[in-house]
């Protein structure tokens, strides 16, 4: 059993004009031996984009990518790079299956857009669908067998009881969790990583949005 508190301030920051990205796991040339993956989660990024900024057409393969927009709007073009586009508004979740190879682009469609993106790479490639697709989905949703994603909204003083599973990842998208036996208060960008833990009660100190992953 283990509880890790991953503070937002400990993430690797990548910046360019109109974009700031915070990487919670190893990414690109930045290797973090202590944070390579969490179950099938190999990437947990938080992006802040100015209008029209983001990621021009690029390729992916062998992934399921889940994006949740916390504020602003995100335009996704593809999945083949030549089709139409989908705009994710604040509070919406996009589920992108890359198949064996796909080209797409993502840019902000609002003056300022903040979103969280997770890449899932299962050990068994057979768990991945063969054809690329992109859908706007309601949560809870199961992007892969054994992987569940849920957006939890809490008012001041509300309690969220964590699922019981081999791995649970709870990210504070906005708001704050009160001090508990586990940690000092958690704020925007902080996360709990639970491994083989029993249920824990997390209490919101202000209106709070949690992004919760359960891996069995």
TrEMBL record:
InterPro entries, A to Z: Pirin, Pirin_N_dom, RmlC-like_jellyroll, RmlC_Cupin_sf
Residues annotated as domain Pirin N-terminal: 17-120
Pfam families (alphabetical): Pirin
Family per similarity comment: Belongs to the pirin family.
Name of the protein: Pirin N-terminal domain-containing protein
UniProt organism field: Nocardioides flavescens
């Amino acid at each position: 059993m283990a509880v890790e508190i991953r503070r937002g301030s400990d993430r690797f920051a990548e910046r360019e004009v109109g974009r700031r990205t915070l990487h919670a796991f190893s990414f690109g040339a930045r290797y973090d031996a202590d944070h390579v993956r969490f179950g099938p989660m190999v990437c947990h990024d938080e992006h802040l984009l100015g209008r029209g900024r983001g990621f021009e057409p690029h390729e992916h393969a062998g992934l399921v990518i889940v994006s949740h927009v916390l504020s602003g709007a995100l335009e996704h073009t593809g999945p083949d790079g030549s089709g139409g586009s989908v705009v994710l508004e604040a509070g919406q979740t996009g589920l992108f299956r890359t198949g064996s190879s796909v080209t797409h682009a993502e840019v902000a469609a609002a003056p300022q857009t903040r979103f969280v993106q997770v890449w899932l790479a299962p050990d068994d490639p057979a768990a991945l669908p063969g054809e690329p697709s992109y859908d706007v989905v309601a949560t809870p949703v199961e992007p892969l067998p054994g992987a569940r994603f849920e957006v939890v909204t809490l008012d001041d003083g509300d309690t969220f009881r964590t699922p019981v599973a081999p791995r649970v990842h709870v990210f504070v998208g906005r708001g704050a969790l009160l001090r508990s036996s586990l940690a000092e208060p958690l704020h925007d960008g902080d996360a709990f990583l639970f491994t083989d833990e029993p249920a824990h009660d997390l209490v919101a100190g202000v209106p709070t949005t949690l992004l919760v992953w359960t891996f069995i």
